[in-house]
Amino acid sequence: MSQADRDKWNARYLAGAYEERTHPSALLEHWAGRLQVTGLVPKAIDLACGSGRNALFLARRGWRVDAVDISPVALARLRAAAEAENLPVNCVERDLEPASSALDGFANRNYDLALSMRYTDVPLVGALPRVITPGGHLIAEMHLITEKTVAGPRNPRFRVTPGELRKAGAALELLYYHEGLVTDPDGRTVALAQLVGRQPRTPTG
Ligand SMILES: C[S@@+](CC[C@H](N)C(=O)[O-])C[C@H]1O[C@@H](n2cnc3c(N)ncnc32)[C@H](O)[C@@H]1O
Question: Which of 6, 7, 9, 79 has most ligand 1 atoms within 8 Å of CB, for mutation?
Fold first, then answer.
């Protein structure tokens, strides 16, 4: 586990990071009701879930969610919120780097939906089809390199280049792809690459 990453994110959450950002991703909100799921209780995995705005959104709509993050502080906040509403969110503390071992222990083809929201790990997106059920979906959103003044990370290491996310999701059927400026529900402008993909009925990987 990268202790430095863990400490950095714990410190941010202890300082109140994202406390006001309780709204789910607009991309997820738009797509959640459009996804076809087979089981009675659909299952999602939310990678680098933070304090769980998206995991909670799904759980309130009847999803069972495995929520994974490196920060125990963020996970404690999510766990408390889920317990207060009696929601089926299973919090998993895990370092998602390297991507090659990030999904060890999660069953293959198990999830109707995998989420990777605003966590810049392109190889992880490439690895995610392994855990998505045939016909299941991936929704991914990453900060995009831009010359405009936008919210989000200043360090370009935490932003993707044009086309990078699309390429990472190439094993999936592409349902939606967008790169550009987006206004978040809180009014902030962000530059994003957004992808919605579907696992083929007969996956290749
Ligand atoms: C910008 S926040 C996004 C949180 C959430 N996905 C959202 O959209 O609100 C990035 C998250 O990535 C997590 N993170 C950073 N490095 C990580 C790693 N190596 N493994 C797992 N999680 C990590 C942080 O703890 C943080 O919660």
Answer: 9
CATH number at residue 179: 3.40.50.150
Under a CB-based contact definition with an 8 Å cutoff, are residues 156 and 191 in contact? no
Residue 203 lies in a domain: no
On whether residue 204 sits in a domain, the answer given is: no
112's tokens:
């109707």
Query: Is 0.90 topped by the overall pTM?
Result: yes
151, part of any domain:
yes
CB of 101 within 6 A of ligand 1: the answer is no
The stretch 142-151 carries a mean pLDDT of 96
Cα dihedral angle (169, 144, 182, 46), rounded to 10 degrees? 50
Evaluate if residue 205 carries a pLDDT over 70.
Answer: no
Instruction: Evaluate whether 54 touches 25 at the Cβ level (below 8 Å).
Output: yes
Within a domain: residue 152?
yes
Question: Which pLDDT tens digit goes with each residue over 29-75?
Answer: 999 999 888 778 999 999 999 999 999 999 999 999 999 999 999 99
Average pLDDT, integer, range 159-166: 98
The domain in which residue 144 lies consists of 3-198
Distance set, CA 192 to CA 108, 142, 158, 164 (Å):
29, 6, 12, 12
Atom of ligand 1 nearest to the CA of 141: 8
Count of structural domains within the chain: 1
3-state secondary structure of 117: strand
